[in-house]
Amino acid sequence: MHRSVRAESRSTIHYPGAMTGGLRPRRIALISVHTSPLAQAGTGDAGGMNVYVWQTATRLAKRGVEVEIFTRATSSSDAPTEQAAPGVTVHHVPAGPFDGLDKHDLPGQLCAFSANVLRAEAAQEPGYYDLIHSHYWLSGQVGWLARDRWGVPLVHTAHTLAAVKNASLADGDTAEPKLRVIGEQQVVDEADLLVVNTPTEASELVDLYGADPARVDVVVPGADLERYSPGDRLAARARVGLRPDDVVVTFVGRIQPLKAPDVLLRAMAPLIRSDAAGRLRLLVVGGASGNGAGLPEALVDLAAGLGVSAGVTFLPPQAPADLADVYRASDLVAVPSYSESFGLVALEAQACGVPVIAANVGGLGVAVADGVSGVLVDGHDIEAWTARLAALLADPARLRSMGTQAAIHARAFSWDHTTDALLGSYERAMAAYRRGAGRQTGLFGLRRRRTRPRVTI
Ligand code: UDP
């Protein structure tokens, strides 16, 4: 997946590949304003980005790069600074009250957050950080200021893009605000290098935000292949609380309209109702997204309304070790999202030897090998999903052989590859910055970069 320099067919897409022995950062500031990599993923604001930040930070540290992560303090018990792993420090930055703030309130706290990041750096010797990597647009805003102050390159990963999400909203979902679209646009214009998950995301940045293709690197995310590997299905079922002969379709992720768990539930309902033996089961793992806490009540009510409560099991967010058992216990994992910049759950399930049925959107087309390790479904028509699910569930031999292929497919993706490719991107950003490209983006109006088409808001 991680090609060494550029995609052959699309000269505009950069695959940075591994380090080439050039400028390696000694220490980087990694900014993740709205969510801590130490948070349990699968609920609230914690998901794939947290996993990405943690997995790459710990691997960067193993490669000799010191990583300091800045995230907002959200609890009085957060130590200001914590050594979270060898070579990885987490700074809990005061910016607004610990709780009661929604992600949408955080733009109002960016000044406080940035000021405290700048103060932390000012207490160190000059040249303390070699590079900044910001995650999500809120962090990009902080990174932009710090980059200009410190004179080091800013690498930015958006993780999700408002313009993309707004173009494929679920029924009843709220559009991302103008404020975010404008903020993302500014970060795209200002970052020295933009790292994206897939070629699709690279095109979206170029087409919708007018990003300069020469400043976009594709670095494909990975799975923790030590944690997520095939294992004893029956033992996993016993640990998860499933019967040996259950037929299990599983959803894993934050319960939010974007992830379309309701589409899956509606599509599964006729199959569950017509399963006289009562073996077919939908397992839903995860908590409410955003500030919603506890069980996803709307989904519980929907199951009751559809008359399938007995066939649906809800589990709270699971730690990775337990999640591996959830995947292993499943016959099929479903990722019906309306939009997905990559879809780590799809990859992790396959790494456990379980095939995936996924919506044909965003990065899922890369994460799933259609017809080999799983199937991709166009659109969100309930009957179409029911038909695809029914066909797969009626053919256990095909499911098993796709599961075998899934484990092989997933082995091409690992966080080690991702980290090596990221280091390649850092090297590229630092070299370009030293050559002077970055300095044109310096503080106090040294430049105004190109005029490019702006994203429509
Ligand atoms: N996750 C978890 N426990 C859960 C549910 C999810 O640890 O109960 C993790 C999962 O392993 C995956 C991440 O949350 O790594 C979700 O990432 P994905 O890319 O699928 O979705 P996102 O949250 O980024 O939209």
TrEMBL record:
Which UniProt key words apply to this protein? Glycosyltransferase, Magnesium, Metal-binding, Transferase
Instruction: Give the source species.
Output: Gordonia spumicola
Alphabetical list of InterPro entries matching this protein: Glyco_trans_1, Glyco_trans_4-like_N, Glycosyltransferase_grp1, Mycothiol_biosynthesis_MshA
Q: Where is the Glycosyltransferase subfamily 4-like N-terminal domain?
A: 47-222
Q: What does this protein do?
A: Catalyzes the transfer of a N-acetyl-glucosamine moiety to 1D-myo-inositol 3-phosphate to produce 1D-myo-inositol 2-acetamido-2-deoxy-glucopyranoside 3-phosphate in the mycothiol biosynthesis pathway.
Q: Where does Mg(2+) bind?
A: Y327, R328, S330
- Gene that encodes it: mshA
One Pfam short name: Glycos_transf_1
Q: What is this protein called?
A: D-inositol-3-phosphate glycosyltransferase
